């Protein structure tokens, strides 16, 4: 029978016990916790002394919980989860107190729109400190669902099931070539003409590429990339060696203005899209993020 315990069981010892149960070995638990094997063993032994019963059976098979261990395991998991929740709640409070704003944005939004929006928002909220991760649209949604970002900005066709969304900008995707390309004197193209040149594409998962590919397929044109690159900037640099890209008009405004790149619309395929801010409505946002969301919904004024 387990003796009464005057004080709560130590969380480091419980974590060692749970990790050993799940890894079925002390070495595996040590790897999980980033500790030495002897440190994990000492913690489990200390826990067993504390409760007065053997919790793990040792053998050539590694370790496995005894009957008492099987009773303790789910409760220990629950306690550790509660402690993590408490830590996250405190961290959220501290972020709120410090006016921290964590965002994840797709490349077009993160590189060409969000910096200006944040500068304008800080005119109203000068204490806000923003942290922005710039990734593709699929990764933005993952960061949002894993709570690594409070608000996300996407440009692709990924489903937004269960998320609140605001349209923050409308954008056009255009054919982009270097100024010396044979299409540089053209004002527009037909989609089928693209088959006659090399396609320099953004990476899989890019919202720009996803939207463009879906529209082209609907028009009966499938493009196979000659080269795939992870950013609009790298695509623009690669075009100096030939070929064409399909990029946001926002991403090439400067180069088109100075004459190093030329942008053409497609006459027969609509390549327009909506750029959206997204949030998880099941998650209560800290005050800075809530204020930023309302500012976005107010027309970016």
Q: How do the helices and strands line up, and which of them pair or pack?
A:
Blueprint: H1 11-23, H2 26-33, H3 37-51, E1 56-59, E2 62-65, H4 67-97, E3 100-105, H5 107-112, H6 114-124, E4 129-134, H7 137-145, E5 151-154, E6 164-178, E7 200-202, H8 207-218, E8 227-229, H9 232-238, E9 245-248, H10 253-258, E10 261-264, E11 272-279, H11 287-297
Parallel strand pairs: 3-4, 3-5, 7-8
Antiparallel strand pairs: 1-2, 5-11, 6-9, 6-10, 6-11
Compact overview of the structure:
By secondary structure, the chain is α/β, with parallel strands linked by helices. 43% of the residues lie in helices and 20% in strands.
**CATH fold field value of the largest domain:** D-Maltodextrin-Binding Protein, domain 2
CATH superfamily (homologous) name of the largest domain: Periplasmic binding protein-like II
Order of helices and strands: HHHEEHEHHEHEEEHEHEHEEH
Largest sheet: 7 strands, mixed
Bin the strand percentage.
15-25%
The share of residues in helices is 40-55%
Quickly count the helices.
Answer: 11
From the alpha-carbon coordinates, what is the Rg to the nearest angstrom?
A: 27 Å
């Amino acid at each position: 029978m387990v003796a009464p315990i005057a004080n709560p069981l130590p969380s480091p010892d419980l974590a060692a016990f749970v990790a050993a149960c799940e890894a079925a070995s002390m070495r595996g638990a040590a790897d999980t916790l980033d500790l030495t094997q002897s440190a994990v063993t000492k913690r489990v032994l200390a826990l067993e002394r504390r409760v007065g019963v053997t919790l793990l059976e040792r053998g050539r098979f590694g370790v496995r919980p005894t009957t008492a261990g099987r009773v303790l395991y789910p409760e220990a998991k629950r306690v550790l989860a509660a402690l993590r929740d408490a830590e996250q709640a405190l961290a959220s409070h501290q972020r709120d107190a410090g006016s921290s704003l964590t965002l994840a944005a797709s490349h077009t939004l993160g590189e060409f729109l969000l910096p200006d929006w944040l500068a304008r928002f800080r005119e109203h909220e000068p204490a806000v400190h923003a942290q922005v991760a710039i990734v593709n649209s699929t990764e933005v949604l993952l960061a949002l669902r894993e709570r690594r970002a409070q608000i996300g900005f996407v440009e692709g066709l990924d489903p937004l099931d269960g998320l609140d969304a605001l349209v923050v900008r409308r954008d056009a995707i255009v054919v982009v070539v270097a100024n010396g390309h044979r299409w540089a004197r053209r004002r527009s193209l037909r989609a089928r003409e693209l088959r006659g040149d090399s396609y320099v594409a953004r990476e899989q998962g890019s919202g720009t590429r996803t939207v463009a590919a879906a529209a082209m397929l609907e028009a009966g044109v499938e493009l196979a990339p000659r080269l795939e690159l992870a950013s609009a900037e790298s695509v623009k640099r690669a075009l100096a060696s030939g070929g064409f890209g399909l990029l946001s008009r926002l991403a090439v405004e400067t180069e088109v203005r100075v004459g190093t790149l030329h942008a053409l619309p497609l006459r027969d395929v609509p390549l327009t899209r909506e750029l959206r801010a997204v949030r998880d409505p099941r998650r209560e946002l800290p005050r800075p993020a809530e204020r930023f969301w309302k500012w976005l919904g107010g027309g970016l004024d």
